[in-house]
């Protein structure tokens, strides 16, 4: 620690009483942010479990309701249809009521939707089931926006790719649990309502986790307000110190002081002056029509990739249970057990892929890798590897899960890299529109393909044939995805190379300037002292 100069010793002792007060750390700047991330992921576990209830019960739903593949896939289409429109308004609503209130509101809407589905399953009313899925979808995507809004604050400028990736992939554990448990529950109770009622239980668990996240976010906000009060007090002290230092400077000039101590002691005695950089506004998943024209060509290519990637994973698995039964001779319970593989692989691989993307960048190359992996996966599903449950079928399912891990950790987190910071909300809003457009259209398209080709040349029904032609469709979409991914790399390479940047944000620093005694004595500029403090006022 530097000693005070003899000339200014009195002032140094006086000023030392007005040091910066230590700040009360916000939870968002501590390891507790990972606990908040855990609760944020758990919010969507129940949603993911209930979303895929139809997939795990596909054969049973088709038999009980006497519907074909197109009408079955309509259960997924109606979920996504409202969410083609909601991103235009969802961010505005969350802005008005706040993300914490929105979590409670949309969690309640999801539970109402699932209860309507339970009612439809009890009465075997297809259109009641459809109504429940519409209500469920309206709450589900909006809850996801609320979750992202809070996590955007907690992980702002630090580990954002990891946080986004985990929020997308960890809830897939809910999909896995549904795939594993729902066929077994139906087999035991012979009722479609029973496994859906278990889904209500998972939603209650998620609701409790939502309350925990809301409490943490509220307490963190209170601590930040306390910080601001301390900083305001410091600013008052700083102004007093500035007046004092100005007085000392004038006194030195008046006395024409040439103290030898000043030449030997390059000390800091004057006041820290905070120049806190303004924080960017929180990015909401909201669309501003005036800003759409400002989005670059790179963004529009990336958004098509997001759309195709989502469509190659979710709609394919929507029919996964029956596909494994018809093509590989499994029972519904066996198919459910195998279908947990892609979800668990996606959840487990995301942290590693996210860290790799944050550390090494080169996202355009990783997106090409993702598209090629999708292509390989759907080619493997063309081959009939076995006629009963066997180990070989785990290979394409594992690779499919890895595909989604790359999607969650690389593709979606690339969006902020290709738009200006003030357009991030618009960009994510449009991404949601295109994703839900794909999730609404692709189930209908695959359902029509299945219905068209499930009859052989003799007019006999052969459901395996319908699934083979579905696989051809997914291969074609995968080839298109590869071509667009390569186009994205060339466009980015010839532009600003935004997708080659490293993704780990660097925390912003608050500049704290100190007047040096050298400034008083006209010492050269390179001898003056400047100290940078981080956001927690540590050197």
SSE layout:
Layout: H1 9-16, H2 32-43, H3 45-51, H4 53-56, H5 58-65, H6 69-80, H7 82-85, H8 87-97, H9 99-123, H10 126-154, H11 160-169, H12 172-189, H13 193-255, H14 260-264, E1 273-275, H15 289-292, H16 297-318, H17 320-328, H18 332-338, H19 340-360, H20 363-380, H21 394-411, H22 424-453, H23 463-493, E2 510-513, H24 517-520, E3 531-533
Antiparallel strand pairs: 1-2, 2-3
Helix pairs in contact: 2-13, 3-12, 3-13, 6-10, 6-22, 8-9, 9-10, 9-13, 10-11, 11-19, 11-21, 12-13, 12-18, 12-19, 16-21, 16-22, 16-23, 19-21, 20-21, 20-23, 22-23
Task: Explain the overall architecture.
It is a multi-pass membrane protein. It catalyses: L-lysyl-L-alpha-amino acid(out) = L-lysyl-L-alpha-amino acid(in); L-histidyl-L-alpha-amino acid(out) = L-histidyl-L-alpha-amino acid(in); L-histidyl-glycine(out) = L-histidyl-glycine(in); L-lysyl-glycine(out) = L-lysyl-glycine(in). The protein has 24 helices and 3 strands. It is globular. The model is unreliable at 1-22, 259-283, 503-523 and 527-539 (pLDDT under 50). With 539 residues, the chain is mainly alpha-helical. It has one domain (28-220, 285-500): Up-down Bundle (Growth Hormone, Chain: A). It has helices at 9-16, 32-43, 45-51, 53-56, 58-65, 69-80, 82-85, 87-97, 99-123, 126-154, 160-169, 172-189, 193-255, 260-264, 289-292, 297-318, 320-328, 332-338, 340-360, 363-380, 394-411, 424-453, 463-493, 517-520, and strands at residues 273-275, 510-513, 531-533. The chain has a 3-stranded antiparallel sheet with strand order 1-2-3.
């Amino acid at each position: 620690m530097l000693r005070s100069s003899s000339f200014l010793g009195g002032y140094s002792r006086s000023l030392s009483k007005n040091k910066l007060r230590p700040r009360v750390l916000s939870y968002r700047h501590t390891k507790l942010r990972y606990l908040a991330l855990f609760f944020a992921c758990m919010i969507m576990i129940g949603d993911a479990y209930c979303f895929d209830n139809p997939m795990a019960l596909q054969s049973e739903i088709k038999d009980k309701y006497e519907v074909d593949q197109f009408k079955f896939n309509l259960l997924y289409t109606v979920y996504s249809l409202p969410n083609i429109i909601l991103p235009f308004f969802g961010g505005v609503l969350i802005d008005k009521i706040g993300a914490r209130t929105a979590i409670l509101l949309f969690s309640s809407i999801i539970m109402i939707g699932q209860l309507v589905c339970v009612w439809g399953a009890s009465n075997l009313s297809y259109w009641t089931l459809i109504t429940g899925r519409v209500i469920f979808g309206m709450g589900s995507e909006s809850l996801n926006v609320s979750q992202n809004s809070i996590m955007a604050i907690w992980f702002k400028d630090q580990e954002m790719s990891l946080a986004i990736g985990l929020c997308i992939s960890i809830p897939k554990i809910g999909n896995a649990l549904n795939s594993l448990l729902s066929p077994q529950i139906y087999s035991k109770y012979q009722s479609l309502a029973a496994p859906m009622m278990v889904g209500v239980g998972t939603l209650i668990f998620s609701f409790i986790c939502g309350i925990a996240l809301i409490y943490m976010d509220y307490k963190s906000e209170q601590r930040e307000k306390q910080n601001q009060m301390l900083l305001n007090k410091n600013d008052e002290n700083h102004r007093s110190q500035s007046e004092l230092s100005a007085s000392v400077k004038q006194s030195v000039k008046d006395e024409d002081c040439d103290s030898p101590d000043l030449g030997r002691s390059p000390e800091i005695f004057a006041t820290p002056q905070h120049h806190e950089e303004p924080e960017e506004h929180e990015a909401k998943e909201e669309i501003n029509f005036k800003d759409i024209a400002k989005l670059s060509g790179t963004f529009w290519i990336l958004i098509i990739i997001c759309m195709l990637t989502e469509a190659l994973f979710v709609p394919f698995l929507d029919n996964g249970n029956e596909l494994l039964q018809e093509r590989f001779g499994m029972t519904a319970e066996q198919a459910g057990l195998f279908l947990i593989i892609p979800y668990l692989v996606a959840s487990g691989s995301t942290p590693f892929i996210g860290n790799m993307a944050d550390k090494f960048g080169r996202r355009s190359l990783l997106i090409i890798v993702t598209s090629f992996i999708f292509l390989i996966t759907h080619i493997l599903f063309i081959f009939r590897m076995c006629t009963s449950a066997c180990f070989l079928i785990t290979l394409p399912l594992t690779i499919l899960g890895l595909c989604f891990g790359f999607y969650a950790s690389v593709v979606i987190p690339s969006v902020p890299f290709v738009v200006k910071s003030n357009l991030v909300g618009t960009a994510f809003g449009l991404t949601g529109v295109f994703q839900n457009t794909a999730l609404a259209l692709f189930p209908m398209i695959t359902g029509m393909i299945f219905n068209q080709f499930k009859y052989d040349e003799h007019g006999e029904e052969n459901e395996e044939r319908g699934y083979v032609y579905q696989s051809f469709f997914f291969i074609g979409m995968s080839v298109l995805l590869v071509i667009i991914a390569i186009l994205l790399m060339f466009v980015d390479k010839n532009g600003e190379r935004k997708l080659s940047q490293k993704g780990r944000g660097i925390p912003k620093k608050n500049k704290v300037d100190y007047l040096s005694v050298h400034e008083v004595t006209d010492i050269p500029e390179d001898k003056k002292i400047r100290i940078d403090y981080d956001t927690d006022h540590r050197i």
